[in-house]
Specification:
By secondary structure, the protein is α+β, with helices and mostly antiparallel strands. The protein has helices at about 1-15, 65-80, 120-145, 150-165, 170-185, 190-205; strands at about 20-30, 35-40, 45-50, 60-65, 95-105, 105-115.
Length: about 210
Protein backbone atom coordinates (compact mmCIF):
# COMPACT_ATOMS: atom_id res chain seq x y z
CA UNK A 1 0.00 0.00 0.00
CA UNK A 2 1.26 3.50 -0.80
CA UNK A 3 0.16 4.73 2.64
CA UNK A 4 2.29 2.11 4.31
CA UNK A 5 5.31 3.41 2.38
CA UNK A 6 4.58 7.01 3.38
CA UNK A 7 4.04 6.02 7.00
CA UNK A 8 7.32 4.14 7.16
CA UNK A 9 9.18 7.06 5.61
CA UNK A 10 7.65 9.38 8.18
CA UNK A 11 8.58 7.26 11.20
CA UNK A 12 11.97 8.90 11.93
CA UNK A 13 10.43 12.39 11.94
CA UNK A 14 7.85 11.26 14.47
CA UNK A 15 10.39 9.35 16.55
CA UNK A 16 8.32 6.18 16.20
CA UNK A 17 9.64 2.71 16.68
CA UNK A 18 9.03 0.29 13.84
CA UNK A 19 7.43 -1.95 16.46
CA UNK A 20 5.15 0.74 17.92
CA UNK A 21 1.43 0.06 17.67
CA UNK A 22 -0.61 2.36 15.49
CA UNK A 23 -4.22 2.81 14.46
CA UNK A 24 -4.88 3.79 10.86
CA UNK A 25 -8.23 5.02 9.57
CA UNK A 26 -9.16 5.77 6.00
CA UNK A 27 -12.37 6.90 4.36
CA UNK A 28 -13.11 7.03 0.66
CA UNK A 29 -16.24 8.93 -0.35
CA UNK A 30 -16.17 10.06 -4.00
CA UNK A 31 -17.76 13.45 -4.76
CA UNK A 32 -17.54 14.56 -1.13
CA UNK A 33 -15.04 17.13 0.18
CA UNK A 34 -12.52 15.79 0.80
CA UNK A 35 -13.14 12.61 -1.18
CA UNK A 36 -10.44 10.76 0.72
CA UNK A 37 -8.80 10.96 4.15
CA UNK A 38 -6.26 8.81 5.92
CA UNK A 39 -5.14 9.20 9.55
CA UNK A 40 -2.60 7.34 11.67
CA UNK A 41 -2.29 7.62 15.47
CA UNK A 42 0.18 6.05 17.92
CA UNK A 43 -0.26 5.72 21.71
CA UNK A 44 1.76 8.88 22.45
CA UNK A 45 -0.73 10.92 20.42
CA UNK A 46 1.65 11.56 17.51
CA UNK A 47 -0.43 11.50 14.35
CA UNK A 48 -0.43 11.87 10.57
CA UNK A 49 -3.18 13.12 8.28
CA UNK A 50 -3.54 13.34 4.53
CA UNK A 51 -6.46 13.93 2.18
CA UNK A 52 -4.68 13.32 -1.10
CA UNK A 53 -3.60 9.79 -2.10
CA UNK A 54 -0.75 11.05 -4.28
CA UNK A 55 2.64 9.92 -3.02
CA UNK A 56 4.22 13.34 -3.66
CA UNK A 57 1.93 15.03 -1.13
CA UNK A 58 3.40 14.39 2.34
CA UNK A 59 1.03 13.95 5.28
CA UNK A 60 0.56 16.55 8.01
CA UNK A 61 2.29 15.77 11.30
CA UNK A 62 0.57 16.85 14.51
CA UNK A 63 -0.10 15.83 18.11
CA UNK A 64 -3.32 14.94 19.87
CA UNK A 65 -3.54 14.38 23.62
CA UNK A 66 -2.10 11.13 24.94
CA UNK A 67 -5.32 10.63 26.92
CA UNK A 68 -7.34 10.96 23.71
CA UNK A 69 -5.09 8.45 21.97
CA UNK A 70 -5.48 6.09 24.93
CA UNK A 71 -9.28 6.20 24.57
CA UNK A 72 -8.96 5.41 20.87
CA UNK A 73 -6.71 2.42 21.53
CA UNK A 74 -9.08 1.24 24.28
CA UNK A 75 -11.94 1.23 21.77
CA UNK A 76 -9.78 -0.65 19.26
CA UNK A 77 -9.08 -3.25 21.93
CA UNK A 78 -12.81 -3.66 22.55
CA UNK A 79 -13.14 -4.26 18.81
CA UNK A 80 -10.54 -7.07 19.03
CA UNK A 81 -8.19 -4.86 17.02
CA UNK A 82 -10.37 -5.19 13.93
CA UNK A 83 -10.45 -8.97 13.62
CA UNK A 84 -14.27 -9.07 13.56
CA UNK A 85 -16.68 -7.80 10.86
CA UNK A 86 -18.35 -4.44 11.55
CA UNK A 87 -20.71 -3.93 8.60
CA UNK A 88 -24.33 -3.61 9.68
CA UNK A 89 -26.90 -5.85 7.94
CA UNK A 90 -29.24 -2.86 7.72
CA UNK A 91 -29.82 -1.46 4.24
CA UNK A 92 -28.51 2.11 4.32
CA UNK A 93 -27.26 4.62 1.79
CA UNK A 94 -23.58 4.67 0.93
CA UNK A 95 -21.82 6.80 3.57
CA UNK A 96 -18.23 6.32 2.47
CA UNK A 97 -16.09 3.19 2.63
CA UNK A 98 -14.19 3.20 5.91
CA UNK A 99 -11.23 1.09 6.99
CA UNK A 100 -9.85 0.53 10.47
CA UNK A 101 -6.32 -0.90 10.45
CA UNK A 102 -4.15 -1.97 13.38
CA UNK A 103 -0.40 -2.42 13.05
CA UNK A 104 2.00 -3.56 15.74
CA UNK A 105 5.30 -5.18 14.80
CA UNK A 106 4.48 -7.91 12.30
CA UNK A 107 0.75 -7.76 13.10
CA UNK A 108 -1.51 -6.29 10.41
CA UNK A 109 -5.28 -6.43 10.91
CA UNK A 110 -8.04 -4.46 9.24
CA UNK A 111 -11.76 -4.30 8.67
CA UNK A 112 -13.82 -2.33 6.13
CA UNK A 113 -17.38 -1.06 6.45
CA UNK A 114 -19.82 1.45 5.05
CA UNK A 115 -22.08 1.63 8.12
CA UNK A 116 -21.83 -0.06 11.49
CA UNK A 117 -24.25 -0.28 14.40
CA UNK A 118 -21.52 -1.40 16.79
CA UNK A 119 -21.38 1.39 19.42
CA UNK A 120 -17.63 1.07 20.01
CA UNK A 121 -16.91 1.22 16.29
CA UNK A 122 -19.19 4.25 15.97
CA UNK A 123 -17.32 5.98 18.80
CA UNK A 124 -13.94 5.22 17.27
CA UNK A 125 -15.16 6.47 13.90
CA UNK A 126 -16.22 9.72 15.55
CA UNK A 127 -12.76 10.14 17.11
CA UNK A 128 -11.22 9.89 13.67
CA UNK A 129 -13.88 12.18 12.18
CA UNK A 130 -12.98 14.76 14.83
CA UNK A 131 -9.34 14.52 13.80
CA UNK A 132 -10.38 14.92 10.17
CA UNK A 133 -12.45 18.03 11.03
CA UNK A 134 -9.49 19.42 12.97
CA UNK A 135 -7.05 19.00 10.12
CA UNK A 136 -9.43 20.27 7.46
CA UNK A 137 -10.04 23.37 9.59
CA UNK A 138 -6.31 23.81 10.12
CA UNK A 139 -5.61 23.50 6.38
CA UNK A 140 -8.31 26.07 5.56
CA UNK A 141 -6.92 28.58 8.06
CA UNK A 142 -3.33 27.96 6.99
CA UNK A 143 -4.24 28.56 3.34
CA UNK A 144 -6.27 31.70 4.10
CA UNK A 145 -3.52 33.16 6.27
CA UNK A 146 -1.05 32.73 3.42
CA UNK A 147 -3.10 33.50 0.32
CA UNK A 148 -6.39 35.21 1.30
CA UNK A 149 -6.12 37.68 4.16
CA UNK A 150 -9.69 38.86 3.64
CA UNK A 151 -10.85 35.25 4.07
CA UNK A 152 -9.04 34.72 7.36
CA UNK A 153 -11.95 35.83 9.52
CA UNK A 154 -14.26 33.32 7.81
CA UNK A 155 -11.70 30.56 8.37
CA UNK A 156 -11.42 31.60 12.01
CA UNK A 157 -15.20 31.43 12.42
CA UNK A 158 -15.08 27.86 11.13
CA UNK A 159 -12.27 26.98 13.54
CA UNK A 160 -14.06 28.67 16.43
CA UNK A 161 -17.21 26.64 15.75
CA UNK A 162 -15.27 23.36 15.74
CA UNK A 163 -13.49 24.39 18.96
CA UNK A 164 -16.73 25.42 20.70
CA UNK A 165 -18.25 22.04 19.86
CA UNK A 166 -15.20 20.41 21.51
CA UNK A 167 -14.21 18.71 18.27
CA UNK A 168 -10.85 20.41 17.69
CA UNK A 169 -8.21 17.92 18.81
CA UNK A 170 -4.82 19.51 18.09
CA UNK A 171 -4.63 23.03 19.60
CA UNK A 172 -0.82 22.98 19.73
CA UNK A 173 -0.79 22.69 15.95
CA UNK A 174 -2.84 25.83 15.33
CA UNK A 175 -1.64 28.13 18.13
CA UNK A 176 1.39 29.47 16.21
CA UNK A 177 -0.85 30.56 13.31
CA UNK A 178 -3.37 32.16 15.67
CA UNK A 179 -0.59 34.09 17.40
CA UNK A 180 0.82 35.32 14.07
CA UNK A 181 -2.59 36.52 12.92
CA UNK A 182 -3.28 38.26 16.23
CA UNK A 183 0.05 40.12 16.05
CA UNK A 184 -0.04 41.04 12.35
CA UNK A 185 -1.64 44.40 11.54
CA UNK A 186 -2.12 43.47 7.88
CA UNK A 187 -5.10 41.31 8.89
CA UNK A 188 -8.53 42.76 9.64
CA UNK A 189 -8.97 43.86 13.25
CA UNK A 190 -11.91 41.50 13.71
CA UNK A 191 -9.76 38.60 12.52
CA UNK A 192 -6.89 39.57 14.83
CA UNK A 193 -9.27 39.86 17.78
CA UNK A 194 -10.91 36.54 16.99
CA UNK A 195 -7.56 34.79 16.61
CA UNK A 196 -6.41 36.14 19.97
CA UNK A 197 -9.65 35.05 21.62
CA UNK A 198 -9.53 31.50 20.26
CA UNK A 199 -5.85 31.18 21.24
CA UNK A 200 -6.62 32.37 24.76
CA UNK A 201 -9.48 29.87 25.04
CA UNK A 202 -7.24 27.01 23.86
CA UNK A 203 -4.49 27.91 26.32
CA UNK A 204 -6.98 28.17 29.17
CA UNK A 205 -8.37 24.73 28.30
CA UNK A 206 -4.87 23.23 28.44
Amino acid sequence: MRWACILLLALPALNLSAEEARLIFSKSFPHSVPAFVEIAVVPSGAALYRDDPKDDNPPLHFQIGAADAAQMFALAEKLKFFTLPLESPAKVAFMGMKTFRYESGATRQQVKFNYTDDPDAALLTDWFERISETEQTFITLQSAAKYDKLGVNKALLQLEAVWDKKRFMAPRQVLPILDRIAANETYLNMARSRAAGVAESMRAAK
